[in-house]
Amino acid sequence: MYPFDLIVLIDDDPINNLINKRLINKLNLSPKTIEFLEAEVALQYLKDPDLEKRILILVDINMPVMNGWDFLSQYLELENGRKDRIIMLSSSIDFQDRQKSKEFPFVSGFIEKPLTHEKLESLL
Asked: What InterPro entries does the entry give (predicted)?
C-alpha cells in the first residue's frame, strides 16, 4: 500500500516538475503523480469532492499569476477538514519564507530546491 493516493506537483517550471515526478515515482509514494504549471488550475482540480483522500501537495512559492502564498490562502477556503499534506518546495533560502510557511497549519514542511530523496523522506 502506498502512503499517498495522489501526489500533486505545482511548479511553473516544467523541467522541475519532470525531475520531481521521476524522483517521486522511484520512491513508490503513490500510484499517481500529476503536475500543474499554474496554481489556480491545481486549486480547481483539488475542489473535486470525490478526489482521493491521502494527497501530498508540493507547491513552489515563486510563480506568476498565483504564487505559492496565494495558493495557500485560497486553499484555506477549500481545506474544510481535508487531510492533504502540503510541503512548500522553493529555491528561496529566505528564512522569512520558511517562517511564513509555519503560519499555515496544514503546511507540514519546507524543502529548498532541488528536491532529493533525503529531503523528501525527512518530512514524511
From this structure: CheY-like_superfamily (IPR011006), Sig_transdc_resp-reg_receiver (IPR001789), TCS_response_regulator (IPR052893)
Give all domains of the chain, ordered by start, each with its CATH number.
Answer: 6-122 (3.40.50.2300)
- With beta carbons less than 8 A apart as the criterion, state whether 88 and 59 touch: yes
Rounded CA separation 68/59 (Å): 6
Q: Which regions of the chain does DSSP assign to beta strands (E)?
A: 6-10, 33-36, 55-59, 85-90, 107-112
Q: Among the listed ranges 30-39, 72-81, 88-97, 99-108, which one has the minimum average pLDDT value?
A: 72-81
How far is Cα 113 from Cα 81, in angstroms, rounded to an integer? 29
DSSP class of 34: E
Query: Angle 47-62-112 (CA atoms, 0-180°, nearest 5)?
Result: 100
CB 4 within 8 A of CB 55: yes
Residue 1: C-alpha distances to residues 4, 30, 108, 121 (Å): 9, 9, 22, 17
> What pTM did the predictor assign?
0.92
